UniProtKB/TrEMBL annotation:
Keyword Membrane on entry: yes
Domain of life: Bacteria
Domain annotation DUF1468: ranges: 7-149
InterPro entries in alphabetical order: DUF1468
Keywords attached to this entry: Membrane, Transmembrane, Transmembrane helix
Regions that span the bilayer: 35-56, 77-96, 102-118, 125-144
Protein name as annotated: Tripartite tricarboxylate transporter TctB family protein
Length: 158
């Protein structure tokens, strides 16, 4: 799917304007010429400028016959649509079940499903998923000290 640049430009302008509106409420630091609103404001201004450029380019493209929305050829492929569905379903599954099931079981399940969708043989997919889930868990839990949910594995937490 390809959106016309004018649509993306309008979205960027709206996002930049919302950020500019939001940073107006940031507290001022007494005695300082700049405050916490400076960098978000600069980024929002950049978003608005980039959005305006995209809006103009997209509008010019409309004159040349570009459509507002164009589907890519992969949308016709059931395999690719299934991969997208598995990916989106995995994200939703993790959001709603991670607290109860835990990171490790869900990561193995999700990665296995994604690998099998990409036509990795099932045995190899599960093996790689287990190793990848353990590596990611070690990196986040031990090295970065990010508390990942244990879920059903809470009695075995290390």
């Amino acid at each position: 799917m390809k959106l016309n640049d004018a649509v993306l430009g309008a979205l960027f302008i709206a996002l930049g304007a919302a950020v500019l509106f939001g940073v107006q409420g940031f507290p001022k630091i007494p005695g300082q010429p700049v405050g916490p609103a400076l960098f978000p404001g600069l980024i929002a201004t950049g978003l608005c400028v980039a959005g305006a450029v995209l809006l103009v380019q997209g509008w010019r493209g409309r004159r040349n016959g570009e459509r507002w929305l164009a589907w890519e050829p992969w949308v016709q492929s059931p395999r690719h649509v299934a991969a997208l569905a598995v990916l989106l379903g995995s994200v939703l599954l993790y959001i709603f079940a991670a607290g109860k099931v835990g990171f490790l079981p869900l990561a193995v399940l999700i990665l296995s499903a994604l690998f099998m969708t990409l036509r990795v043989p099932p045995g190899r997919a599960v093996l790689i998923a287990v190793i990848a889930a353990l590596v990611v868990h070690f990196a986040f839990y031990k090295l970065l000290r990010v508390p990942l949910p244990w879920g059903v594995l809470t009695p075995y937490a290390w």
